Amino acid sequence: MRALDGRVAVVTGGASGIGRATARRFVDAGASVVVADRDGDGAERVAEELGDAAVAGTVDVTHPAQVDAAMALAESRFGRLDVLSCNAGLATSPTPALDADPDEFARVLAVNVTGQWLCVRAAVPAMRRAGCGAVTITGSVMGERARPGFGAYAASKAAVNHLAKVLALELAPDGIRVNCLAPVATDTPMLKSFLGPDDPERARAAFIAGIPLGRLAEPEDIADAAVFLASDAARFLTGVVLPVDGGRAI
């Protein structure tokens, strides 16, 4: 029996990077998946690759109606909703915190914090109907360890890391577990934003130099941890912020 046999999941940010890898790992583990992403065409491509176990939805996580529709799609297509994997996120190029553009700062918080809250809020009624649920929010090691130049991003991820703990307490009576993954810099299309335009190779080397295991994370590293947290193997884990960081948080 596979770890997620019979489960139904919504994966936001599912068109690329960690979300795409998570959608694939979930299907490999036996789940049916709604691949949700603002890039609707990209979500369709991933769903087509995954076959009958997946369906795509165009979802901007800052739009409540679109988020609600993604959760409804899970129930209408697959009959229930058991798992929510929140991966939609926004990053910026390295900028001193006090030099950040106010509109950009607000946008990062809207996507990375409010967007995750909207997704959980929309998923919980269906999970209550199912009688249980597992939520995984992708935070960041930067939510625990600050790094210069990432004021908006680090603040948003610190908020998400703590939001997961609050939600874990509030939803425990419903049998809904909420955990947070805290990756280190991960080799995805978003990585270009973190590296900045000035000297990306030097920036990449600096990130790697701070990781004891000597490499960036791969999307599959995070996806494998997401499968574990969604499975019964993690049935007594809630409110955990799990570093997937090659030792960076030590």
Automatic annotation (TrEMBL):
Q: Superkingdom of the source?
A: Bacteria
The signal peptide, as residue positions, is none
Name the UniProt key words of this record, in alphabetical order: NAD, Oxidoreductase
**Gene3D superfamilies according to UniProt:** NAD(P)-binding Rossmann-like Domain
Question: SMART domains under this entry?
Answer: PKS_KR
**InterPro entries hit by this protein:** KR_dom, NAD(P)-bd_dom_sf, Sc_DH/Rdtase_CS, SDR_fam
* Domain (Ketoreductase) ranges: 7-187
Of which family is this protein a member? Belongs to the short-chain dehydrogenases/reductases (SDR) family.
Report the protein name in the record. Answer: SDR family oxidoreductase
